Amino acid sequence: MADAAERLWSPDEYLAWERAQPTKHDYVDGAPVAMAGASARHNLIAANVVGEVREALRSKSCSPFPSDMRVRIPATGGYRYPDASIACEPIQFEDDAVDTLKNPSVIIKILSPTTEAEDRGRKFREYRTLPSLRDYLLVSQDEIWVEHWFRQDNGVWALRDVRAGERVQLASCGVELRVDELYLKVFPPPEGAAEAAS
Questions:
Q1: Model confidence over 1-36: pLDDT tens digits?
Q2: How far is CA 31 from CA 10, 34, 74, in A?
């Protein structure tokens, strides 16, 4: 990585190097950037997200992808790793390696203290340049709360806050995600809940 700080890498150099690495790196401003590690809560939410999305898409012509699927950002020349993404037919990949998605309809990011500002800011600005993108979900780790940004027919992005007991409606792929399922086993039940249930 010392070399990365000293020069700019071409996209081809980045991809060849990245595909040989045991850990993931975004490609930003001509250089690889190491991805931060994830907490147990982050990983549990990510597993729930992929599971719920897979179930919702079972009979649809769209497919879910976990965090190992890169997304190409042509407007910046960069590559990013969402926590999860959805693409609908015809799904487009950058090359025969089939590890870089070109046309996500939905991108999902799980917020963490170290990445929240960028997920809300620069990354969202970059993702919005993708013509295929219709939905951008920001999933809180601290409470049951999903911020659902969606592109309206006029191209303007709007926000819908979705809380416990509600559903995220993804018009781009014709499914709903149950917010409670995204947070399954993430937070302990309230004090006394177990006694009340018995």
A1: 444 456 899 999 999 999 999 999 999 999 999 998
A2: 8, 10, 15
Q: Which residues, 6+ apart, have CB-to-CB distance to 64 below 8 Å? A: 50, 53, 54, 57, 84, 85, 86
* Residue 39 · residue 11 · CB < 8 Å: no
Which pLDDT band holds residue 188 (cuts at 50, 70, 90)? Answer: confident
Residues 6+ away with beta carbon under 8 Å from 102: 71, 72, 92, 93, 94, 132
The strands making up 104-110's β-sheet, listed across from edge to edge, are 62-65, 84-88, 104-110, 135-139, 145-151, 157-163
Burial of residue 105, with CB atoms counted within 10 A of its CB: 0-12 exposed, 13-18 middle, 19 or more buried: buried
And the tokens for 37?
């590690």
